[in-house]
Amino acid sequence: MTSDDIPTTKTGDPDAAIEAESARRRYAGGFEAVRGISFSVARGELFALLGTNGAGKTSTVELLEGLARPDGGTVRVLGHDPYRERAAVRPRTGVMLQEGGFPSDLTVAETLRMWAGCTSGARPPGEVLDLVGLTPRARVRVKQLSGGERRRLDLALALLGRPEVLFLDEPTTGLDAEGRRDTWRLVRELRDGGTTVLLTTHYLEEAEALADRLAIMHQGRIVTSGTIADVTAARPARIRFDLPEGVPAARLPLSLKAAADGRRIDIRTHRLQESLHELLCWAEESQVDLQKLDARSASLEEAFLDIAQTRATAGRVETA
Amino acid sequence: MTGTTVSGRLTALGRAELTLLVRNRTAVFVALLMPLLMIVAVKSSLDRIDLGGTGLSVAGLALTGGLGIVLLQVVYMNLVASYVARREELVLKRLRTGEVSDREILTGTALPSVLLAFAQSALMIVVGGLAFDLGAPERPDLLLAGLLLGAVLMAALAAATSALTRSVQTAQLTTLPLFMVSLLGSGLFLPLEIFPDLAASLCELLPLTGVMTLVRAGWLGTGAGDDVLGAGLSALAWTALSVFAVQRWFRWDPRR
Predict the structure, then answer these.
(1) I need a surface site. Which of A26, A80, B158, B177 has the fewest CB within 10 A?
(2) Are A166 and A253 members of one domain?
(3) Chain A contact set for B15 (CB, 8 A)
(4) Is ipTM > 0.85 here?
(5) What are the chain B neighbours of A87 within 8 Å (beta carbons)?
(6) Is A33 within a domain?
(7) Averaged pLDDT, B171-190
(8) Domain presence at residue A48
């Protein structure tokens, strides 16, 4: 599916919180980071933008945040142009940049107080500190925070004004497993409370855990999008195992379409249950012990790796 | 939902910036002590210059020059470093994702330095009146106009200079040209009257000269009406030019 095929809502759709229509972004050196992407996010929806580093996720989000003007196409947030109608959009959005921008010599509490003074309907600073679990660190200077704590401070600022639309650019990068779970729980609660969330991540499990819908970006374009079921539907399931010494891969049933790498066997199939049944019957009849057997349905990871690999070898993507 | 106001946002930004200023020992030292040290040094060297024909007293020249130094060091040099530091730490970019407008971000960042400069100026005017026999300012309105224009001009030039400055460290270099040119050519301590005519006319075109003429006219009552008017226009022109330069070339993202 190319970006042309992605269903888009017309500009002005009252249900859409975020809309991009053939949006492009070119940098001063001539490099085009965003090459005509279109998508829309409904109110209350959690939408994830996935992609490898350099795919154009941050460049796209910066257009939606209104930090840059698109070089082509349009973007709308809550029905407004986020760049030109800054004053109308900003009080209703919350932003977490990929890298926090805080003066290093202010404490956490001072940073929040400054931000609260610039935010309509700001929550009490103590409340957001509690939300992100930074209360014990309130009097610590920003430069003494760990990377994960800085991400949580950034999240606290993004949540301060109870935004209707929340942009989270790689919110859990640098967090440990527990911190990541906490952030996921918080983001889910916000979504359940009606907040529209646009999230970028290169953690596939993050998109799997949170997103209602997602788009995978590659080289400045959206390559595929939809629900996780949509994106994985066309992908094959996978069975992997090691054959014992002395059992050549040629002895496997031909119908299984196995690829061998030494003793390691990799089977891709669209009928996981049947293929697995066939394999196990063969193993029992042939008295072969399948080591490290692993069978899994198509996952986002498969889809993602498939896109990254095939596109990389193809060299270029179909023109949009 | 309670909205925010311009003054509320500026107060929040200014307060944070003041906290940062106080925590930066070098900046505090430069802002508080350097102007005074400069005045003492200049006053002792001025004793050797003949001011007979200029109608200025050594104390008058040193203290009005001191106000110029305050504008240059406390507002201009300090703010170049602040703007660059906030830009490189991505603070400016982060602020732009919020409700504050670009102008408010630049103003809020400048507020503590400007207030500090005004406090020092007030102190010097009081000290000059009481300890150096300069008396009360002759034209307080002109003095105030000069200081206000000077502060806006210095802040705008600081924002413009920050666009050419890669890091906080290089700010010490990029601020030097304006500092030296103003020190020598804008009549801070060397009255333009002692220069040859052509040099004096050129010096009148420098950014800070108009402000200094206003300040001196306001405090000491020097200068004819035409000179003061010309100085005011020159200061306004430089301010407009700097504001335009900021709108055109200011960098919000780090230089990488």
Answers:
(1) B177
(2) no
(3) 113-114, 117
(4) yes
(5) 99, 101
(6) yes
(7) 91
(8) yes
Searching chain A, which residue's CA lies closest to the CA of residue B23?
A105
CA terminus-to-terminus distance, chain A: 10
The whole domain housing A195 covers 3-101+162-232
Query: pLDDT for A176-206, tens place per residue?
Result: 899 999 999 999 999 999 999 999 998 888 9
Residue A267 sits in a domain whose CATH number is 3.30.70
Residue B53 has pLDDT above 80, yes or no: no
Q: Is B8 on the interface with A (CB under 8 A)?
A: yes
| Closest chain A residue to the Cα of B87, Cα to Cα | A101
Structurally, chain A folds into a number of domains equal to 2
Query: For A2-17, how does the pLDDT look when each residue is reduced to its tens digit (9 = 90+)?
Result: 444 444 444 456 679 9
Terminal C-alpha separation, chain B: 39
Domain boundary among A232, A257, A273: A232
How much is the mean pLDDT over chain A?
A: 88
d(CA B175, CA B81): 9
B121 falls within a domain: yes
Same domain, A167 and A289: no
Query: How large is the average pLDDT for residues B159-183?
Result: 94
Q: Report in angstroms the alpha-carbon separations of A145 from A108, A109, A142, A169.
A: 9, 13, 5, 19
Question: Is the same domain home to A169 and A258?
Answer: no
In this complex, do A120 and B8 lie within 8 Å of one another by their Cβ atoms? no
Which residues 83-112 of chain A have a CB within 8 Å of chain B?
Answer: 86-87, 90-91, 93, 95, 97, 99-106, 110-111
Same domain, A190 and A289: no
> pLDDT > 90: what percent of chain A?
63
Position B190 in a domain:
yes
Give the domain extent around B60.
6-249
Q: What does the DSSP 8-state code read for residue B233?
A: H
State the DSSP string of B37-103: HHHHHHHHHHTTS--TTTT--HHHHHHHHHHHHHIIIIIIIHHHHHHHHHHHTTHHHHHHTSS--HH
Same domain for A247 and A170? no
Distance CA B18, CA B14 (A): 6
Chain A residue with minimum CA distance to B24: A105
Does residue A10 sit in the same domain as residue A55? yes
Q: Decide if B96 and A99 are in contact by the 8 Å CB cutoff.
A: no
At residue A320, what is the residue type?
A
User: What length does chain B have?
Assistant: 256
Q: Is residue A309 domain-resident?
A: no
Residue numbers of B between 66 and 125 with CB closer than 8 Å to A: 85-86, 89-101
Number of domains in chain B: 1
- Domain shared by A11 and A74, yes or no: yes
- Mean pLDDT of the region B24-43: 76
Closest-CA distance, B83 to chain A, in angstroms, reads: 11
